Amino acid sequence: MRISVLIPAYNEQDRIGATLEGVLGLKSIDEIVVVDDGSADRTYEIASSYEGVSAYRLEQNSGKGYAVNFGLTKIKDADVIVFLDADVGATSGEVQKLIEPIINGECDVTIAAFPPAAKKGGFGLVKRLARSGVKLFTGAELSATLSGQRAFKKEVLDIFDAIPSGYGVEVGMTIDILRKGFKVKEVPVYMTHNETGRDISGFKHRGKQFYHISVILLKKFFK
């Protein structure tokens, strides 16, 4: 079974190295693809310096969805594809826990369930909206609906013409995958990443998330 890891990255020069080193240490991984989404720092230079990593650079910042779609065109004959954020650092090795249930035939998709945040974020509105939306449309009760760390059997990703863009992508994909009858499993991991705090930029980010998820859910009503 061939396993590929896809890492979209934007201005992650401080973390991309550690993220790659954690994954490169896993014998189960056959291919690592990094897509630098038009970073203004040395993200691409650092990623491309690692042997065993295929790094690509987009000329301008086009968003995570675009970077993921571009990266999928570069992946070669994978049976399992892992989406991994560039900011998880040395905890990236935890993706092994996402891969094993798929290899063992337990499920078609795994979603990383992170430990509780180390610092206070928002007030839980975005998480509640995401969880409620998934339950409304599928009946499934999932806790990590916003997590971007996921592993998929290739045939699951084949149901999408393209990975949607925007902050509602994970919620929309989860709904579509469950509706198609694929089995999804949440897997506890000890990953960490850059957390959004209770400052102006943090509330702006969560506001965008809430809006994008709301739009995705509204669209589901009319499909």
From TrEMBL:
InterPro entries xref list: Glyco_trans_2-like, Glycosyltransferase_2, Nucleotide-diphossugar_trans
One Pfam family per UniProt: Glycos_transf_2
Superkingdom of source: Bacteria
Domain Glycosyltransferase 2-like: 4-123
Protein name: Glycosyltransferase 2-like domain-containing protein
